[in-house]
Amino acid sequence: MKSKLFQYVRAESTQEVVSLLGELGEDAQILAGGQSLVPAMALRMASPEILIDISSIEELQSIELVDGLLKIGAGCLYADILESALVVKSAPLLTQAIPFIAHEAIRNRGTIGGSLALADPAAELPACMLALDSVIVLKSHEGTRKVPAPEFFLGTYFTAILDTEMIVAVEIPTISKNQCHGFLEISRRSGDYAIAGGAFVVELEAERVISAQMAYFSVGDRPVLAPEAALLLTGSELSDEVIRKVGAHAAEEIEFLADLYNGVSTKKQITKTLTRRLLTQISKKVT
Ligand SMILES: Cc1cc2nc3c(=O)[nH]c(=O)nc-3n(C[C@H](O)[C@H](O)[C@H](O)COP(=O)(O)OP(=O)(O)OC[C@H]3O[C@@H](n4cnc5c(N)ncnc54)[C@H](O)[C@@H]3O)c2cc1C
Questions:
Q1: Looking at the domain 58-173, which fold is it?
Q2: How far is the CA of 115 from the centre of ligand 1 (A)?
Q3: Quick one: CATH architecture of 179-286?
Q4: pLDDT digits (tens, 9 = 90+) for 126-140
Q5: Does the Cβ of 101 fall within 6 Å of ligand 1?
Q6: What is the CA radius of gyration of the chain?
Q7: Is the CATH number of domain 7-53 3.40.50.300?
Q8: Is the whole model's pTM more than 0.85, yes or no?
Q9: Which of 34, 48, 111, 131 is within CB 3.0–4.6 Å of 38 for a Cys-Cys bond?
Q10: 127 lines ligand 1 (CB under 6 A)
Q11: Could you tell me which of 13, 19, 15 has the C-alpha nearest to residue 50?
């Protein structure tokens, strides 16, 4: 099948994009890396009248520290983020997560903004945004607003973005001296979407956990945190017994949804196992 006829605009600035979105609303759709939108158009699951290509907008392609936050432009490719020394230093969770996304060809075209806007519950970066306490920066013809990650992901392929808005950047608190980042997913084959995955940020002092953000993906209709399991971890050392308990608790706390290939019990068991593996990995980094 081929896509319906559409008009194409190559935008040169975010101002041009938001003016067009303000005028056209839902008739227009942003094209970033095209890795999801183009196949969806070919299958006629998406039929925008006008495509606004944002891939040459330079202001969307920077990775920088701004007021102590790591700011990544929405147009940054997975491959650019993976290669950024600043990301390795400031948010190593992303450097750990990106190699798990699809295959190299897709990582060379797909963008962080596209991944967050798509809000696939099986995607890696939305869960990283939750674990990292990130904020998504949205722009419209009326101005900008910042949405914390937990308020941004509202369901399967459903976010807080309005028809007149675009993502321009994400702002991520940089890793602190006592924090450890850990990422793991379990899939059938390398490059496949995960059966379940986790992105953790754990803060320790004298080997005791003082705070934890445990985010999971491919478990429900959106990426989720496990705040009760994180609370159970807080104040404890990462002993085998604590790790086992926290893994079991996370698997009970999450409201799992089956996907096309994996049932709830599989996802639950995998969540328990990957939580244990991730916390064990983190415990080895601190000892
Ligand atoms: C074979 C295959 C395997 C894949 N495996 C994985 C995987 O393992 N993990 C994973 O996370 N993803 C995977 N993907 C999806 C891929 O990462 C997505 O294409 C990507 O997340 C979307 O990014 P994009 O830049 O290509 O966006 P596009 O396809 O251009 O756009 C996707 C959607 O986001 C909107 N959009 C894009 N940018 C913005 C913006 N700045 N503001 C507002 N809306 C915007 C578009 O209008 C569209 O609705 C896979 C894709 C393929 C084809």
A1: 3.30.465
A2: 4
A3: 2-Layer Sandwich (3.30)
A4: 999 999 999 999 999
A5: yes
A6: 19
A7: no
A8: yes
A9: 34
A10: no
A11: 19
